[in-house]
């Protein structure tokens, strides 16, 4: 172990460094444990926020929506040769994009 005083990380504000340097070792140990617990708590909170956002996006995205179709797509019905079909449809810039979803059943209800 070195006999030299440690060098503070450059991201630690100078005022905090000065306060820490004035504290006795027992208090520094308490501060150290608290800082680690606080950092772990904030990281858990951040992971929870990311998970909640991911869950929200999953809930908003229909389960049968293909990965290559944006969640803002809507279902449209196209009639081709007297048959009706469902398509996912969305806008990309000035173009309207479509992707086949499947046929409508004969009764017209799904």
From TrEMBL:
Would you say which domain of life the source belongs to? Archaea
Q: Where is the composition biased (Basic and acidic residues)?
A: 39-64
Location of the DUF6788 domain: 49-103
**Which Pfam families does this UniProt record tie to the protein?**
DUF6788
Write out the ranges of the annotated region (Disordered): 39-70
Question: Can you name this protein?
Answer: DUF6788 domain-containing protein
């Amino acid at each position: 172990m070195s006999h030299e005083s440690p060098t503070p990380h450059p991201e630690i504000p100078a005022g905090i460094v000065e306060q820490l340097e004035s504290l006795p070792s027992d208090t520094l140990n308490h501060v150290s444990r608290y800082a680690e617990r606080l950092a772990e708590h904030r990281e858990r909170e951040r992971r929870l926020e990311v998970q909640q956002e991911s869950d929200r996006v999953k809930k908003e995205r229909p389960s049968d929506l293909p990965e290559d179709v944006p969640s803002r797509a809507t279902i449209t019905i196209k009639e081709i040769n007297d048959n009706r079909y469902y398509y996912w449809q969305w806008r990309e810039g000035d173009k309207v994009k479509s992707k086949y979803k499947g046929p409508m059943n004969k009764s017209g209800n799904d």
